[in-house]
Protein: Acetolactate synthase-1/2/3 large subunit
Amino acid sequence: MTERVEGHGGELALAALRANGVREMFTLSGGHVFPLYDAAHKHGFPIYDVRHEQSAVFAAEAVAKLNRRPGLAVLTAGPGVTNGVSGLTSAFFNASPVLVLGGRAPQFRWGSGSLQEMDHLPLVAPVTKHAETVFSTDDIPRAVTAALTSALTPHRGPAFLDFPLEAVFSVGDAELPAPVAVAPVEPDPDEVARAGRLIAGAQRPVFIAGSDVYAGDAVAALREAAEALGVPVFTNGMGRGALPPEHPLAFAKARRVALKGADVVVVIGTPLDFRLSFGDFGDAAVVHIVDAPSQRAEHVQPAASPAGDLRLILSALAGQSGDRVDHTDWIAQLRTAEDAAKARDAEEMAADTDPIRPARVYGELRRVLAPDAITIGDGGDFVSYAGRYLEPAQPGTWLDPGPYGCLGTGMGYAMGARVSHPDRQICVLMGDGAAGFSLMDVESLVRQRLPVVIVVGNNGIWGLEKHPMRAMYGYDVAADLQPELRYDKVVEALGGAGETVAKAADLGPALARAFDAGVPYLVNVLTDPTDAYPRSSNLA
Structure:
């Protein structure tokens, strides 16, 4: 039996949002969207507000990524929407089901120069799956449900709606559509079988599992396939932790050895982008498993590329009949390389040097982070070390900006993570450059009693730019920040707490105080500016 809803546009929108599992709103106050606030207030729907609209979208994205359900950001017209475009774009690259609802100048005066009058759709359409202006109050429940359907349908991604002033403030009456129900996409069985034969016959296969494995709730199926086929597993993005570090098929440190020696590389739920050498693995055959045909790589020709529900594909691979090559020697070879790399990392993470080496920061963090801690990376050079030295113990515990590489996610992600998991440790790993993008939103965390720990690697430079520029030109420009800047004092001024650490021996006690503080707490670690994360260029 269909349900009818009545009320102003905010009431109609909220009814559709709640019916589809949306549980909270992130926003920065604006008059164009007052009816959405009014509806939320009357119905006890949580509202979390921020100091910059990008943080609202990033918070909504963290909710979407961690919980595998829609996250909601509400932005006022004009600059409210444009300030959120970087967040929308990150969600697009990360396949995060975020819904942004925007205000819009009144349609009946369109073209007359109303406050913040702007057509948002040409800006947001390229970075959303669905973008629409809803001109009729009665049409709002239909539009919200359609936008959420698009956002949740693989390949997932953000959606955008805006409401002219008269549409959202007026009273309407409409049927509430049935909640979104996304049916699994059945893969082509012949393509799955082709992939299965390649893997089963490989002498040295490798799995690389990415964020869509978590987003598609395919973690158990990944383990099933890896164990059935005896294939070593590497991960990136939110795929990290899909196999616990102690699992015999879980690897993190031996990727270079694995990709150099592999004869079949199976990339699951992540694009063949700069993080994976653009899909060029030498003579190895590439199997690219994706959640939708649109995600098949076009710049390389995989030997097989099954597309569809990742659970169905991986379970089918696990259950495939026929002969399989024994990979015991291959796994042992990788384990030797893994153990050697771990020994080197352990030595680096224990380095007792002043200035502090970034590796030592992560050595100390490994001692205090709980297995279910949510770890958030927001930065370049400093966060690269996090990817190397931290090994998530559980899936769904790692957030980073993703392939778009947008700095400024930190405080928004922290807010979304804290709202999603009130009882877990939330730890933001932030470069001092990234701190300039969002640190003001510590005030939002303080005011709304959302404690997190922020660890700033403070080397006084833009590390990803300074060192390469000097190597290329013999000099650098626009790559310096204030050395030893007191970011902890900024957090204290905003109502939180913190301290600066200059000696490696003081790191452990400072982190212990941070996690016990119960308020946003920033540990400002003065790190060695000469210690640069080794990398080749990813710009090509």
About this structure: The chain has a mean pLDDT of 95. Residues 381 and 464 are 6 Å apart (CA to CA).
